[in-house]
Amino acid sequence: MTDTQQTAEYIARDERWGAHNYHPLPVVISEAEGAWVTDVDGRRYLDFLSGYSALNFGHRNRRLVDAAHQQLDRLTLTSRAFHNDQFGLFCEELAALTGTEMVLTMNTGAEAVESAIKVARKWAYEVKGVETDRAEIIVATNNFHGRTTTIVSFSDDPAAHDNYGPFTPGFVTVPYGDAEAVRAAIGPNTAAVLMEPIQGEAGVIVPPAGFWSDVRRACDENNVLLIADEIQSGLARTGTLFALDHEGVRADLYTLGKALGGGIVPISAVVGRSDVLGVLKPGQHGSTFGGYPVACAVGRAVVDLLSTGEFQQRAKELGEHLHAGLRALEGKGISAVRGRGLWAGVDIDPRAKTGREVSMLLRDRGVLCKETHERTLRMAPPLVIEREEIDQALAALAEALGE
């Protein structure tokens, strides 16, 4: 595929005026619906990334768009200086869906993680009795929780970490998937264990069976909070509401974002125990847009979509089909496939091409996905995708690998 002059002009403008903190594929999208997007030249592509799981319910889902329109016609923002008629309903309905007791609303996933860190530390000092400024949080190797200064302080990815110091102390890193290492790292100052149930940016890494049960037990035995970052893995992506549900494990706090706003508005949340989130008192934490009416209205519609279980079931059944098709390509340009539900990390054989090269070949065949690191494709199609469309993407991948 050759880029047209129109596409080249849009990209040149992005590169001239936008900071170069992303390396997008050279495609300029102007319209989208469901699992499909259209570029400025009218070419259609199957979206196999879903905005890193922000578009679980597809582009411009009609129920979500209608909820946004209806709210835009009534009220957009009050700040939390006043009550509005959407906030409490959203919190109540999200708590009921997730089986939790309290909701703290923010805007972005990174803000939710930052909020969970603050809450865990405050709880450690005021409830557990940890000495002031000595609280520790256990995290995992190859983690990704956001881009703020505190969060990148405990990243071991050089691209996210290097040259942003001085860094925030108070984090202890252990190998991901090693429950004994988690247990060994717990000490009298440990406030929480913060990890992704499935690591997304690292390449959709699934921990060994039993890992989360062991970590939950270690937390219970030592009065330590378990914080699950379900910003990418949650809200039906893996075939259950939470990825932790696959092991029947409950966290004390969950961080949510991305799909919570339906790909329309940014909204995130920390949900969990009221005795933990309850350590926050008026004036101690906040956000002007956190829990604003438009986001709450869309979030309520998202909760309604998830309450039927339809999307969880679609992710489970179609995910099995996707993974079977990907595994059939192992040894044919793919060295490994990981993941759950409609979420897959696909390692490109080192003897073949790089992840970006395969992404470009897929683009030329009408499928959009993106590499993570050098040789892994991260695939996460919208949960509204059809089986035939998955087959179309698999055929395109087989053709790209064979080129």
From TrEMBL:
Gene Ontology MF, one: ornithine aminotransferase activity
Keywords: Amino-acid biosynthesis, Aminotransferase, Proline biosynthesis, Pyridoxal phosphate, Transferase
Cofactor(s) listed: pyridoxal 5'-phosphate
UniProt-listed Pfam families: Aminotran_3
Signal sequence region: none
SUPFAM superfamilies for the chain: PLP-dependent transferases (SSF53383)
BP-aspect Gene Ontology terms: L-proline biosynthetic process
Keyword Translocase listed: no
Classification via PROSITE patterns: AA_TRANSFER_CLASS_3
EC number: 2.6.1.13
Pathway: Amino-acid biosynthesis; L-proline biosynthesis; L-glutamate 5-semialdehyde from L-ornithine: step 1/1
Record-stated family: Belongs to the class-III pyridoxal-phosphate-dependent aminotransferase family.
The name this protein goes by in its record: ornithine aminotransferase
Species of provenance: Aeromicrobium piscarium
